[in-house]
Amino acid sequence: MRRSWVPWVACACLLAPALASSDAPLVAPSLCEASAALAAPWDPELVLVGDNEVDDRLFAFAREGERLVFRRALPLPKEGRPHDIEALAAVGGQLLVVGSHGPAKSGEPRPRRARLAFYAPDGPGGSLRLVRALDDAARLDAARRDLAACVATLFTSPAPSQAGAVCRALVAAAPQVEAAAAFAGPGSAAPRVWLGLRTPLVEGRAVLLRLTPDLEQLRFDAVALADLAGRGVRELAVRGGMLAGIAGDRGDGDAPSRLWQVSLSDVRDGATLAPSWGEVLPGDAEGLLPLAAGAIVVVDVERTGGGATPCSAPARQLFVNWPKERAAGR
Q1: DSSP secondary structure string for all residues of 42-97
Q2: All domains of the chain, ordered by start, with CATH?
Q3: Cβ-Cβ contacts under 8 Å for 33 (sequence gap 6 or more)
Q4: What is the model's pTM?
Q5: How far apart are CA 80 and CA 57, in angstroms?
Q6: Angle, to 10 degrees, between the axis of helix 163-172 and the axis of helix 147-154?
Q7: 297 — phi, psi (to 5°)?
Q8: 121-173 pLDDT tens trace
């Protein structure tokens, strides 16, 4: 994201934002565009935050009640690391870091964004070692040539029922991967990794894609669609028996985002999910850390000049309560 964060105010023509019980800066050196949040797989007391303009490190925070307090930077080894970090997921005891897989704003390909990398802690000092990295640029290029190539390249055989619809959308528009979560769903005893797309949509619904269990290449064996009222997936997180997420604008507009959740048992191949809606969030809300009584949401801000230049303001952290379930479609 590339927009500045501003307070949200109620408007008769727009959804009103959540009244967060806690709203504070998320302060760490060089952290501006906070894009993902996750409790570290090896230490649940340590919260990892990614920045989509900082490729060489993650930011480690301690949770103090409803607030995150910066502790240290975690350098990412240069080899295989994704650029434009948009998602983090826990896969067993390893950390999955996901690049956006999208092109530059000009449309020029950015191959290092099309990577997934798995990391594990390397000794007591808190550094990370690369376990393996998947470089997906060539597969995406091949998949976007035409419909048949897409289905053959990105999906198992036989392909999921929605593979053709997804491929028609991918051939027409470059993907933007913004979310990832690993959980044991129907028919699977072991956790499986699902990726959520900000764009494109399929028939107005957001796309969730399940990676094959070997996690050796960008290949999917299940597709679920989520009716997020025309929004894309901006974040996914597991909360008990629920899959929670942030639904947000598919472009760089200022429309508010929304919390949502569905039962994990409903997330399966061929499903069309009708989530219950939660609070309205700022449009730049991008990271979600579920807690027992609520959630910490991280919000990105704009750098003054992009890259490693200073922040126009610190990233933000909000604490919101889990709402009572509301009907889908709003």
Answers
A1: TEEEEEEEEETTEEEEEEEEEEETTEEEEEEEEEPPSTTPPSSEEEEEEETTEEEE
A2: 28-321 (2.115.10)
A3: 1, 2, 51, 52, 53, 54, 300, 301, 302, 303, 315
A4: 0.90
A5: 13
A6: 120
A7: -115, 130
A8: 998 767 899 999 999 999 999 999 899 999 999 999 999 999 999 999 999 99
